[in-house]
Amino acid sequence: MTLEVDDLRVYYRTLKGDVQALDGVSFGLRDGEILGLAGESGCGKTTLGKALIRLDGRMKHVGGSVTLDGQVLPIGDDVKMNPYRFKQVSLIPQYSMSAMNPTRKIGRMVRELLESRREKLDLDELHARLDLVELPKDVLGKYPIELSGGMKQRMVMVISTLLNPSLLIADEITSALDVSTQKAVVTTLKGFRDRGFVKSMIFITHDISLTNQLADTIMVMYAGKLAEKAPASTVVNAPKHPYTQLLISSLPEVGVRYADKRLTGIPGNPPSLLDPVPGCRFRDRCPLAFEKCAEDPPPVEVEKDHVVACWKAA
Amino acid sequence: MLKLDGVTKVYRIGAFGGQTMTAVDEAGFEIKPGEVVSLIGESGSGKSTIGKMVLRLLPPTSGTISIDGRDVRQMGKRDYYRKVQGVFQDPFSSYNPVFKADRVFAMIREVYFKGVPDKEWTAKIEAALDAVRLSPGAVLNKFPHQLSGGQLQRLLIARALLLDIEYLVADEIISMLDASTRIDVLNLLADLKQRGLGVLFITHDLALGNYISERTVVLHKGRIVEYGPTDAVFEQPEHAYTRKLLASVPQLHTKWEDAS
Amino acid sequence: MKAEALYFAIRNTKLLVGAGIILVLLGIGVIGPFFIDKPPTEYVGMQMQPPGGEFWLGTNTFGQDLWAQFVHGLRTTFLVGALGGGIAAVIGMVVGFLAGYKGGWIDEILNMLTNIVLVLPTLAVLFILNAYIGVRSAGMQALFIGLTQWPWAARSIRAQTFSLRGRDFVDLARLSGVGSGRIIMREIAPNMSSYLLLTFILLFGGSILIASSLDFIGLGPTDAVSLGLMLQQAHQWSAMHLGLWWWFVPPGAGITLIVGALYVANVGLDEVFNPKLREL
Ligand SMILES: Nc1ncnc2c1ncn2[C@@H]1O[C@H](COP(=O)(O)OP(=O)(O)OP(=O)(O)O)[C@@H](O)[C@H]1O
Ligand SMILES: Nc1ncnc2c1ncn2[C@@H]1O[C@H](COP(=O)(O)OP(=O)(O)OP(=O)(O)O)[C@@H](O)[C@H]1O
Ligand code: SF4
Ligand SMILES: [Mg+2]
Ligand SMILES: [Mg+2]
């Protein structure tokens, strides 16, 4: 196991109380595994990604543990986490394309970043990796605005994997890209794993069709909790959790026309994570809900590698 | 009928506009009432530029845009916006974060419905919200950050409906929404077209374009490379670029490797 | 959002301390003169009196009441600060908003103007103006400071406006038939309100400093007393050598306190408005 997350709880402190954005999530990640993390906007995907590398000022580690390559990560301690960042765990944050410093040439930015980590720049290795993602060497002499969105995204990917971290977390890195660039980016990520630049990866997106192209396992979250986790093909073809089922059936595919087959969304909104009522958090929107759902459904392994948190599925 | 004829946009870039960049090159197509036209192309191909020119947020460098044969430049902006409205990609950037979300309605009222009594106005808003299936209690009097992306986008469509519009420019309005909300907004557009609205549906997601549109325009580096009924474009794409785009669409049940 | 800002404002010690000092000094400057019946330049008593019961801050070598001068000086100093800072803020806002929102040639012309004023040798201009016009009231001083201090404010407001202009809600307002002026005032400015307040505070403090140094080199108003003028006179009449510390310490401390408190309050306000700096 590369990564072992056990009952992780991370809340946001706000004036109105704690937002329970990550409320008891457990999962493991094997060497070489790519985990697709999916779920509605606001279900805690980014929170989970950030929790594994850096809690921002508002976030509070309430409970649970994270183990990476046999070591327990001190995720609640910003300073003690420093040696792990970038070298063991690396994160490509949401909107990172637009977060590159516009006043620095890219090459200089890379050098400064490595210096801040007290690492030497291996120029040959960098060039080899640029080659791999089909970026010309002269991008290093350019400013971020001179690159297209897809080029910037690939550059960020190269930078964040330069030190061969064990775990790479990619947060919605394809959402702003068009389909052909998305494909190139996803193919590159796969190549990184195959060449061993990263051991394992968490790929966050709400585009399930895209996750399925890349991920070995898909984990679906709902309102701060794990809803279902299974091999990608199982999630896509035989999901057991009612939320996953509805989610999958609402995806349009090329060939499906409104006039022939009207798809439907999931009525209702997710619950507020400030003080959520106990019980299954999908209850208000679930077509199968029954009395028992007033209790929290525990995640149960219904078959090998297939975990579902639903009273109806167990 | 909304018609674009040889529309070109050249941006001046660099200090003092020393360089130029042709973002849209001689684009021509039309949108009939009651139909959805998809405008598809990769990032930077000029889709938003076309949308903004149709919305008169940018002047075309050359070419004409006309409605029922009348050049839109002859129409006053206020009258024009009564007929043509737009919704943009990022629901959170479409609202001024320091004000309540329903201010977008108040702005319309100030300009177009000054004399309308409160009661009539409330009824009008309720009708528009009903058309986009939002309940007034859930969305009125709230700040943008208290609403979901899907709710915000639907509010913007409701805002456009207050004006009895004939055409709507929808620039990537669903790419920031999550899967289950996307389909709700798409279905809403499809319902509106049945009520006679013409929609310019800008997207880079071919599956979505295919789902609701009658006709499809494929844009590549500012040029139209394919234009025709959606079925034809999807089943027998003529241009190599269209074929490449189609092959890149992630399909739920097929992997890229298996397809090629 | 407003409520949240208030919540943090009343818990921010920097802001409270800074604003408290300003308010106390402002109070003295505004109300104080009403309790002093004689003009501050009148010779009221013994010369070189140390602080005491009759003359709280003592008297100078001419027998003028230094407390009266201090109180009136505070008033002038605040007036020049508010007026100069206000004029600079208004010009900076007009130029910054127009350049940032309109772009194109308007931007280029305004940018040129900003750069010209920025490199203008302010002191030389002031000497020349002085020689030709010769009007030296506190109001003129404030006007001059206002007219020369706006460029950096204009620049940063332009940059912020420029980035806000690209946001979709501005396009949406245009699609609602709203005109440019209203878009600037009602869509863009409210988004920068905290920033505009901070800019004004910095300009206010800056104006007071500039006014004091102008006073000190003898370019101060001739019709009023200000803290800077008190310092200048103390210097001119060798208060330091004569050991008349009560002549130069109060005005020096006053200026330092006002400007220091403004900057501390500014840092506090920054923390209140900027969630990233907030301590929870
Ligand atoms: N700084 C914060 N303060 C309070 N609540 C927050 C904060 N950041 C996030 N939240 C809340 O925590 C929950 C989880 O947010 P998170 O960003 O992890 O969602 P996400 O799954 O990444 O969504 P998206 O798909 O929109 O990126 C949301 O309900 C959100 O409102
Ligand atoms: N204001 C501007 N000044 C100069 N160039 C511009 C401006 N706006 C857009 N461009 C350029 O024009 C081209 C077309 O941009 P446009 O925004 O229309 O693309 P798009 O198809 O909407 O892309 P996306 O899918 O990323 O939204 C791009 O190369 C872009 O860099
Ligand atoms: S536990 Fe109950 S409410 Fe929750 S998903 Fe299962 S059936 Fe639905
Ligand atoms: Mg996120
Ligand atoms: Mg666009």
UniProtKB/TrEMBL annotation, chain A:
Ranges of residues in domain ABC transporter: 3-248
GO molecular function, one term: ATP binding
Origin superkingdom: Bacteria
InterPro entries, per the entry: AAA+_ATPase, ABC_transporter-like_ATP-bd, ABC_transporter-like_CS, Oligopep_ABC_C, P-loop_NTPase
Protein's recorded name: ABC transporter ATP-binding protein
BP-aspect Gene Ontology terms: peptide transport
Pfam families attached to this UniProt entry: ABC_tran, oligo_HPY
Keyword Manganese included in the entry's annotation: no
Keywords: ATP-binding, Nucleotide-binding, Transport
UniProtKB/TrEMBL annotation, chain B:
Keyword tags: ATP-binding, Nucleotide-binding, Transport
Record-level GO BP terms: peptide transport
Family annotation (Gene3D superfamilies): P-loop containing nucleotide triphosphate hydrolases
Domain ABC transporter: 2-246
One Pfam family matching this protein: ABC_tran
GO MF terms held by the record: ATP binding; ATP hydrolysis activity
SUPFAM superfamilies xref list: P-loop containing nucleoside triphosphate hydrolases (SSF52540)
Source organism superkingdom: Bacteria
Name by which UniProt lists this protein: ABC transporter ATP-binding protein
Automatic annotation (TrEMBL), chain C:
Lineage: superkingdom: Bacteria
Coarse class of the protein's main subcellular location: membrane
Ranges annotated as spanning the membrane: 15-36, 78-101, 113-133, 195-219, 244-269
GO cellular component: plasma membrane
Domain ABC transmembrane type-1 as annotated: residue spans: 74-268
Compartments where located: Cell membrane
MF terms (GO), sorted A to Z: dipeptide transmembrane transporter activity
Record protein name field: ABC transporter permease
Annotated keywords: Cell membrane, Membrane, Transmembrane, Transmembrane helix, Transport
Membrane topology: Multi-pass membrane protein
PANTHER family cross-referenced by the UniProt entry: D,D-DIPEPTIDE TRANSPORT SYSTEM PERMEASE PROTEIN DDPC-RELATED, OLIGOPEPTIDE TRANSPORT SYSTEM PERMEASE PROTEIN APPC
SUPFAM superfamilies: MetI-like
InterPro entries: BP-dependent_transpt_permease (IPR050366), MetI-like (IPR000515), MetI-like_sf (IPR035906)
Family membership noted in the UniProt record: Belongs to the binding-protein-dependent transport system permease family.
